Model the fold of this input.
Amino acid sequence: MPNVALVGTQWGDEGKGKIVDWLAERFDVIARYQGGNNAGHTVIHDGVKQVLHLVPSGILRPGKECVIGNGVVVDPEALFKEIDRLQEQGVETLGRLWVSDRAHLILPYHHGIELGSEKRRGKDAIGTTSRGIGPAYQDKMGRSGIRAIDCIDRDVLAAKIASNLDVVNDLMRHLYDREPFVADEIVEQYAHWGERLKPYLADTSLRLDTAIRAGRNVLFEGAQGTHLDVDHGTYPFVTSSNATSGGVSSGLGVGPNRVDGVLGVTKAYTTRVGSGPMPTQLDDEIGQKLRDVGQEYGATTGRPRRCGWFDAVAARYAVRVNGCDVFVVTKLDVLDGIDPLRICVAYEVDGVRHEEMPANLTSAKEIVPIYEDCPGWKGSVIGARTIDEFPEEAKAYLRRIEEVSGCSVGMASNGAEREAIVQLPGGPLDDLVP
Ligand code: IMP
Done:
């Protein structure tokens, strides 16, 4: 049975939540491998909107097992806020949701460090989600992180927090001009979270291995997107983890040969939230229309997203670094009535033409997107349930996305509701989705 990774091919917010929700019905286990509660996965069912930040969207499908892997950074307060809300809505999490005992935790001082460092960066600030993500990964890589297993043992927790605060409080006092943190308060708080976390903790690599060996299929749920990946994204305007499919193996403790296929989720246009280059950004009425019709406001921070045309250079790169087998194109309905549509096929960066994503995008003085036009469609794609019901121009737009990205389109989403999905049969998706 196939195990499939689902990744964002742009700058996050591709609409992965809805696609994971759709796929979750067809998979047994849904596992997150990176990021934290900086993500915001929106699912709309029966008119009710659910936004999940940390718990895999699969939790909304009864009977499915969900995993938060070792590669995720967990803010216990955010996790339990989400768990409590789900429980109130009758969604059981105990015995269905497993958190890796090796996952690193976000601590209160990570928020302090992030606020301090973003402020010091001034105009070069990353524009983070202020969830403490970067500093938590910094501690992990710097080997001073605190893992979920550590807060089960109060002595271990106290020793680690005391040692970390030695350095952190110096930073607070002398560099960031902020109040120092009190060790006992954090120990108290995290020992409490430890108690609550205990029944959720597991060696999730082992659980996944057992599931895979038993023939159950696993969906690896990515957060953020390719161009926010710390290695492959528009560095330094990225998040601090590997959002690309390569992160599955290290972030969950499963061998790369366990990933049978990669599904890339791509919006029919482009959005970005936070700082950093976005070559196809539109600061005109079309950009505003995309924002209004697409309700392009951050699911986590509420910030307005920057909007623009579909970027095939970014898409091609995503196909390559993730090994995408198939694309799922989301929010096609947002393009209803826009004519012509434009697709960026190359960039001119400081006078040099690039067909492939250059590494110097963030330091470039001038980026000029090279566009080709595609006819828009009259009428609407909303309500269609088969590809034959799409206007010819919408079909042609999807075909052009395939051609310029080098990846076959297997599905298109044409509305916010769970049911608003059109499959394009006959492609690689048929072999990947049980
Ligand atoms: P951080 O992940 O909070 O450190 O933020 C780093 C960059 O990634 C910022 O530009 C954020 O706006 C962006 N970012 C982080 N998570 C998401 C997401 O889930 N969707 C879109 N952008 C995100």
About this structure: The domain at 4-89+204-432 is CATH 3.90.170.10 (Adenylosuccinate Synthetase; Chain A, domain 3).
